[in-house]
Amino acid sequence: MSSILSVEHVSKAYGNVLALDDVSFTLNEGEVVSILGPSGCGKSTLLQAIAGLLKPTDGQIIIDNQKVSDRHMMQSPDKRPVNMVFQDYALWPHMNVYENIAYGLKRRKNYTKKRKEKVEDLLDKLQLKGLARRMVSHLSGGQQQRVGIARALATEPKILLMDEPLSNLDIKLRLQMRNELAILLKELHTTVVHVTHDPMEAFALADKLLVIRAGKLEQYGLKENVFHMPKTEWVAQLLGYTNRLMMEKQQLEFEGDNRGSIQWKGQLIQGNCNDNQKENTGHWKVIVHPNDVKLVNPNEVSVDQKEENIIRERIKHVVFQGLSWQVILNTGDNEDFSFIVDQPLQVGDEVSICFPVNRTFLFKEEIIG
């Protein structure tokens, strides 16, 4: 699989503020990457640099083996083999659906028959048949977004850029469009750079996740690898690892193979830790995803301590969620530690829970920004 996009040590400064700080990654042809992070972290800045809408302060960008920008030059957007789908659709209001989709093909002087065939194919793929002659102002938000995607795909760009394409839709329509878009991108084998602040949208659409924090690349890799092995507490929190146990200042016992153990209220907890954290003394957090926590009966179930962590605590609160209950434990840390059960439990009861050692993460305490 050949590389179609290479971003090499790209930075973008606005005065003394670094919107991007030495970001590097490569993307192969046919892959979809989601740039994931909170508002203001640099996601859209990176996308605009790839599109040619802004010039990097440092570093270079190579698309399809051609350098398109560095600190000394910047190829204009119309010269790059990319198209963008904007958050606000950016359709031509005086044109109908057909004319909007055909616009790029017409500018490239594609002959009429080929242009018609291409537009008809996209109308069919994006469920817009029957709407070709309708003015875009008379369409729903979901239909307008489909037109924007069709227009971007019409000229068959090497890379499709998508800037939070579903954020303006209501929740129900967003879920529907997310699934439709995921299927379409796989069907077309389109190379995509997609920006979002929603991890669920990134998981649905992407092959790879590129997580950005305050302009810096925090983690990059296959989405499954990033989710199952977050490198920092911040990445874990972003991806839904909301369970945390706080530790007093103490020594982590490093056991090799990026495994460590630590004491919490006299109970041994083992988990994954970064190699550079070994033998460090400090304030630690145990990070666990709620889906990995199970209720156990220690009198009836034999749990291997080498494979599972077991702790015992009292229930602080129970939340009814329709088909299940969220149980929140009283850990005394001002931090939530919760799990899901299919039968209600009583506040004040003491329960035993377990969570896999290989899905437990030990991080030195940091300030989450």
Explain this structure to me?
Helix content is 23%, strand content 36%. The chain has 8 helices and 23 strands. The protein has helices at residues 43-51, 97-107, 112-125, 141-154, 171-188, 199-205, 223-228, 233-238; strands at 3-14, 17-28, 32-36, 58-63, 66-69, 82-85, 159-163, 192-196, 208-213, 216-222, 243-246, 250-251, 253-256, 259-264, 267-272, 281-282, 284-288, 294-296, 308-320, 325-329, 338-341, 350-356, 360-364. The strands form 6 sheets. Strands 6-7-8-3-9-10 form a 6-stranded mixed β-sheet, sandwiched between helices. The chain has a 5-stranded antiparallel β-sheet with strand order 18-22-19-20-21, with no helix packed on it. Strands 2-1-4-5 form a 4-stranded antiparallel β-sheet, with helices on one face. Helix 2 packs across helix 3, helix 2 (97-107) packs parallel to helix 4 and helix 3 packs across helix 4 (141-154). It is globular and about 75 Å long. The relative contact order is 0.12.
List the helices and strands and how they pair.
Elements: E1 3-14, E2 17-28, E3 32-36, H1 43-51, E4 58-63, E5 66-69, E6 82-85, H2 97-107, H3 112-125, H4 141-154, E7 159-163, H5 171-188, E8 192-196, H6 199-205, E9 208-213, E10 216-222, H7 223-228, H8 233-238, E11 243-246, E12 250-251, E13 253-256, E14 259-264, E15 267-272, E16 281-282, E17 284-288, E18 294-296, E19 308-320, E20 325-329, E21 338-341, E22 350-356, E23 360-364
Parallel strand pairs: 3-8, 3-9, 6-7, 7-8
Antiparallel strand pairs: 1-2, 1-4, 4-5, 9-10, 11-17, 12-16, 13-14, 14-15, 17-23, 18-22, 19-20, 19-22, 20-21
